[in-house]
Design brief:
35% of the residues lie in helices and 14% in strands. With 88 residues, the protein is of the alpha+beta class. The strands form two sheets. It has a two-stranded parallel sheet with strand order 1-2. Strands 3-4 form a two-stranded antiparallel ribbon. It is globular and about 40 Å long.
Length: 88
Amino acid sequence: MTTTLDHKRATSNKLAFNWVTSLNAKILWQRHARWTVDDKFYTSSGVSAGIDMSFAFLEHVTTRDFDDNVAHDIEYVRIMDSQSDPFS
């Protein structure tokens, strides 16, 4: 069976990582990523990582200043490094 993420980089929740990665060996699983971007596909390693991933997407489609203003307005401190995952 072929899935959309076959041969793409992706990540997932670290508590469920072994189980999730066992479901499809064709996905290029990134154990130490907070979020990944591969082509048009964004994946995150959890809920708060998903917020950071959403900000990365927002910055991609708008500007860094706009993105920073949104984070400030919702009083959110971003982790901007997609490889900085303290749970991996």
